[in-house]
Amino acid sequence: MKVDGRAYRTIWPDPDGESVIILDQTLFPHRFETARLTVVEDAARAISDMLVRGAPLIGATAAYGMALAMRADASDTALAKAYEQLHATRPTAINLRWALDRMHAVLRPLPQGDRAEAAWEEAARVCDEDVAINSAIGDNGLAIIRDIAAKKGSAPVNILTHCNAGWLATVDWGTATAPIYKAHDAGIPVHVWVDETRPRNQGAFLTAWELGRHGVPHTVIVDNAGGHLMQHGDVDMVIVGTDRTTARGDVCNKIGTYLKALAAKDNGIPFYVALPTPTIDHRVHDGIAEIPIEDRSQDEVRFISGRSGEAVTRVDLLPPGSAAANPSFDVTPARLVTALVTEKGVIPATAEAIAALS
C-alpha cells in the first residue's frame, strides 16, 4: 500500500543484508517511523511489545527472527533456542507457530553453513506468499461487496470492521480490508464503520489511519455503537480478521468481536471472517475450550496516548486503586459466522468445508 505516494510493506530486509526493517505500530497514528531488527531478541520484543501485530505479520516477523538468529549462530542449539524464544512471545495467533514450524522444517536438515542464507530466502518467501494470499482474499471478498452494491444502486455499501485486519496487520493488503481496498479501487462506493477497539485502539489508531491514506471513506465509532447502527439499517455487512480459526470454524479475534457477531445475527446482517488458510489450526476444534486467550497488562486499559498540540501524551483513565482486566481476544462460534473468506474461496464455517481446503 502507499503512504504519501510511496509504496510500503510492513516488514522488509534492509539492503545491508544484516537487518530487517519494520513499521513501529506503537507510534501510530501520531508518528510514522521505522524500527530496525538486528538480532533475534529484537524480533521477539517487536512481537511481544506489539511493534508488529496481526497474525500474518507476527508470522512474517518470526520468520525473519529465525533468519536473524541463523546469521549469528547456525547451530542446532541456536535454532532450537530461537524457535522457543519467538514462540513464547504471543500465545493466541497461530501464524506464529506456523511460520516457526515452516522455518524449522526448512533449516533443520541443512548443514549449518547453509542455514543463514536459506533462512533469509525462506523468510522472504513467507512475506511474498502473504502478499499474494491477501490479494486473493481481496478478490474473493470483492465479489461479496459487488453483490451488495448491485442491490443498493448508487448508495455506498456500509461495512463494519473490528480491530485492525488491514495491511498493517499483514505484509500488505490486509485480510478484512483487502476486499474493501479492491472495491474502492474498482469504483464501488463503500463506507467503513471503524470500531475504535479498546483498549489498544487498533481500529481508531491503525485501521482509520490506513483507510484515510488510501482515500477510503470511513467513520470511527466507539465499540458499543455497532449494534445500534445495525438496528437502524446502517450496516450492510460485517467483516473481521482472525488470529486463529478452529477445524470446525470457530474464530478467535480481538476482544469484542463476539458481541458484533451476536448483534449481526440478531439483525440479519452477514458476518464474514477473512483469513489466510495458515490461520486455520486443524488441531483445535472447540475454540472456546481450547484456544489460549492472551491476558495482557492492565496498563493497556488504564492508560491511553493522545496528541495535545504537537506533543503525544500518555494519561491515566482510571480511579486510583481500581484494578483492570485485559483479555485480548474472544471466540466467535462458527454458528454466528456467515462465511469464511480465504485465498482459496468463500466457504461455510463448517468442519467439512475447512477440511476440503487442505
Automatic annotation (TrEMBL):
InterPro entries reported for this sequence: IF-2B-related, IF-M1Pi, IF_2B-like_C, Initiation_fac_2B_a/b/d, M1Pi_N, NagB/RpiA_transferase-like
Family recorded in the similarity comment: Belongs to the EIF-2B alpha/beta/delta subunits family. MtnA subfamily.
Keywords of the record: Amino-acid biosynthesis, Isomerase, Methionine biosynthesis
Protein name, entry field: Methylthioribose-1-phosphate isomerase
HAMAP family according to UniProt: Salvage_MtnA (MF_01678)
Pathway: Amino-acid biosynthesis; L-methionine biosynthesis via salvage pathway; L-methionine from S-methyl-5-thio-alpha-D-ribose 1-phosphate: step 1/6
Active site feature: 243
Class in the EC hierarchy, top level: isomerase
Residues annotated as binding substrate: 53-55, 90, 202, 253-254
Assigned EC number: 5.3.1.23
Protein's job: Catalyzes the interconversion of methylthioribose-1-phosphate (MTR-1-P) into methylthioribulose-1-phosphate (MTRu-1-P).
Transmembrane portions of the chain: none
Catalytic activities: 5-(methylsulfanyl)-alpha-D-ribose 1-phosphate = 5-(methylsulfanyl)-D-ribulose 1-phosphate
Any Pfam family: IF-2B
Molecular function via GO: S-methyl-5-thioribose-1-phosphate isomerase activity
Top-level taxon: Bacteria
Site (Transition state stabilizer) residue list: 163
Entry annotated with the keyword S-adenosyl-L-methionine: no
